[in-house]
Amino acid sequence: MAQQINHLRSSDPTVSILEVLKHDGVVIVEDMLDPSLRDQINRDLDPYMKDAALTTPDLNDFIQSFFGDKTRRIGALPAKSRAFCDVLANPILLGLCDEILLPACSSYQMNVGQVIEVGPGAAAQLLHRDEDVWVHVPRPAPMFQVASMTALVDFTEEIGATRIVPGSHEWERERQPEAHEVAVAEMPAGSIAIYLGRTIHGAGANATADLWRRGIHLSYLVGWLRTEENNYIAVPPDVARDLPERVQELLGYQMHDAIEAGGGVAGYVELRDPMKMLRAAKGGVA
Ligand SMILES: O=C(O)CCC(=O)C(=O)O
Ligand SMILES: [Fe+2]
Fold first, then answer.
1. Which option is the CATH number for 7-281: 2.60.40.2470, 3.40.50.2300, 1.10.8.50, 2.60.120.620?
2. pLDDT value, residue 110
3. Which of 73, 87, 124, 282 has the most CB within a 10 Å radius?
4. For the chain, what is the mean pLDDT?
């Protein structure tokens, strides 16, 4: 029998969700988004998805084939959907990041917020670890990324639900999963699969004739490391200033102040704090 992923509910204590995430490297939380939030996000995204490109010619050849040619992606989500910001600042997700990332940083940030629609006929994605983007971080390293996939439609194996390998966050880097070790993150729309940056996973194949598997890939990263998505350009100050403060911080407008750890401050502009600049731009006091 194939591997299974443990399912919890958003009403479960965050500490129980954390325990499973730390032990298995992955956990599914059902009913993370209530139906009205999920519908709102889908409505916000619909106009953008129609025009989303199937190719990414500016990125390198490996990334293009990694993304696949039957998969549509869009980013800059906080600028496109206020409802998405509720997911970004969700207390369960932030509670987990506090526990997992704060031991290795003073504050963490959004790494990427991306809609991924796996199209009909798409092949399964290469199994990978998201944290391998940062090959220059010496290993072994503390956990420096927390990632997730939120289902905006029902995720079934047939439609291309994410495949995830429980326990693989603790494997030797060279170890490849065997078929029986791979679990399928089947879950109803509104659920989220949360996994560690070190956990092996990849999008499944979409065997349907006409259904797009829509999900949001959202991940968080320690505040001192370069993010995959350039959040300051994706969500520039004139857009960010109208977003909630916690979202501004998560977009990297918060400086990474490591004084407590005996370090310095990173992320200032003209020696000023970008959070104060956003406040001033909104008409408040700088
Ligand atoms: O779409 C998915 O299910 C996973 C995508 C993914 O893992 C990635 O692009 O890094
Ligand atoms: Fe991934």
1. 2.60.120.620
2. 99
3. 87
4. 96
